[in-house]
Every structure is written in structure tokens, then in C-alpha cells.
Specification:
The structure is a single chain. 0% of the residues lie in helices and 65% in strands. By secondary structure, it is mostly beta strands. The chain has one domain. A hairpin with a 3-residue loop joins strand 4 and strand 5. The termini are close together.
């Protein structure tokens, strides 16, 4: 048996500037969607792109990408 957990932080990259920034995860469904808060003020919704294997979102004319939160698998039992 195993338990899967995801980190509550992600690194988001701005495609326009190439800069990265840390963000807090609000809600997440693996391979579907990701909602994050940047600097505790900006909420960003991102959708999973199967072809690129990235979560992609846009706001104020800027596009952002991330690989999503880190996945942790804990094995239980013998």
C-alpha cells in the first residue's frame, strides 16, 4: 500500500521574461489543473497541457508555466 502526497509550493516561470518565482498551491488535481497564489496577492489558474507535460496559465497578457508540485510516495506495509 502507498500514500501519495504533493508539495504545497511550486516554481512558476514567466514565458515572457524567463524569470521564476515561488508560488503556494491553492488547489490541484494531477494532470488536470493547478491554482496557485504568487506573493500572497495574485491568484493564477493553470490547465495541464498533455503534449508539453506542463501546467500553463496566463494573466495580464503574460503566460506562465510550471511542471507542478513535487510528488511524494510513501510506502506502507511489509
Amino acid at each position: 500500500m502507498q500514500t501519495i502526497h504533493f508539495d504545497d509550493k511550486v516554481v512558476v516561470e514567466s514565458i515572457n521574461t524567463g524569470k521564476t518565482i515561488d508560488a503556494d498551491v491553492l488547489s490541484f488535481k494531477e494532470n488536470s489543473f493547478l491554482s496557485v497564489v504568487i506573493q500572497k496577492t495574485v491568484k493564477l489558474h493553470m490547465q495541464y497541457n498533455e503534449a508539453k507535460k506542463l501546467y500553463i496559465g496566463s494573466m495580464s497578457g503574460m503566460e506562465f508555466v510550471t511542471q507542478g508540485p513535487e510528488k511524494f510516495v510513501t510506502k506502507h506495509g511489509r
